[in-house]
Specification:
2 domains; 3-stranded antiparallel sheet; about 325 residues; Serine Threonine Protein Phosphatase 5, Tetratricopeptide repeat; two-stranded antiparallel sheet; 5 strands; about 55% helix; 15 helices; mainly alpha
């Protein structure tokens, strides 16, 4: 419950409902304030809203739930592009491997990820505190191959620094309200490294600050931590918010949660969104769902097309070269 003072008149309700206070009936036109949760009724003041709550509660919660589901299942924003090659940056390196397209019976990238666990867990980007940019590994690899081992691929600043210097630079970016730096420093405190000891409280604080500044990665990390701690309410809230912001692993997790709860239809909706963005785990889940009759042929075909297109869009010669280097290094 709450009041939104900037909601325009609603065209789907009659004039008496829209332009009169739902409690006292006084006409007020656009000066009336709409219920923030459902947008269905208006009030002339907070007292009227409070007095009307018992009568409005059921309708309000039902409509608020409908609005939440609509927002949750909207197409997420596009992935961020690498600022050098302008190709979308995937959540993991393995998503860039050039393999045959997925089909109803096979998701080659998932099979490759299972056989190459190190690659599957490797990030496809690196944050540079000198300029606050996250650069894809393909561009970093190309830059290093040209002999620039100790410089930033974006701003050419020197990056060959001690752990102490690295942390100092990151902290300067944090002080300047850089969400990317907050996420990196939070991860460093969460797992330890760069001369910093594990500090759960500092990690949570930095993730929360980065979340407030729009970092879906930090929000997803918060969701994972809350789930581990058993706070499922906060975990669900942050997982949903991260998914709506375009975090594919969060979206895939929502599918897992719904499926395990028996809500197969809702799970499939989440997995379709994640797979369409190139998430191979979600695509595998959908393949299994199709085999068990939970997904129609039309839906699986359209999702496969979107998934394969997304995979192609994330690949490049530079990324292929970097992946080949990693593979040969591990042989």
């Amino acid at each position: 419950m709450g009041v939104d003072i900037n909601v325009p008149p609603m065209n789907n309700r009659n004039d008496a409902t829209v332009h009169c206070c739902a409690e006292c009936g006084v006409a007020g036109g656009i000066s009336l304030k709409a219920c923030m949760s459902c947008k269905l009724v208006r009030y002339c003041n907070v007292n009227c809203q409070r007095n009307h709550w018992k009568k409005h509660k059921k309708e309000c919660k039902q409509r608020a739930a409908e609005l939440h589901d609509e927002a949750l299942l909207k197409d997420p924003p596009a992935k961020e592009d690498c600022p050098i090659c302008f190709i979308p940056i995937p959540i993991g390196l393995v998503c860039c491997v050039s393999l045959p397209p997925a089909t109803i019976s096979s998701v080659p990238i998932r099979d490759f990820a299972n056989a190459n666990e190190e690659l599957a867990n490797k990030a496809m980007e690196q944050y540079y505190s000198c300029c606050g940019k996250s650069i894809c590994s393909g561009c970093i690899h190309s830059f290093c191959e040209s002999g620039n081992l100790d410089n930033c691929p974006y701003c050419n600043a020197e990056v060959d620094k001690t752990d102490e210097e690295y942390v100092e630079d990151i902290m300067k970016r944090v002080a300047a309200n850089d969400a990317g730096a907050m996420y990196i420093l939070g991860s460093t405190y969460e797992y330890g490294g760069k001369g910093l000891q594990h500090d759960h409280a500092k990690a949570m604080e930095l993730y929360a600050r980065a979340t407030d500044l729009g970092s879906s990665k930090a929000r997803y990390n918060l969701a994972v931590i809350y789930r581990k701690e058993g706070d499922l309410k906060k975990a669900k809230f942050h997982t949903e918010a991260a998914a709506m912001a375009g975090h594919e692993e969060a979206r895939n997790m929502l599918g897992n949660i719904e499926f395990e709860s028996g809500n197969k239809e809702q799970a499939v909706k989440h997995w379709i969104i994640a797979a369409s963005a190139g998430n191979f785990v979600a695509m595998h889940h959908l393949k299994r769902c199709y085999e068990n009759g939970y997904v129609s042929r039309e839906s699986i075909d359209s999702t496969l097309t979107a998934y394969n297109t997304s995979c192609v869009e994330m690949r490049s010669e530079a990324r292929d070269a970097y992946i080949d280097t990693i593979i040969h290094r591990n042989m």
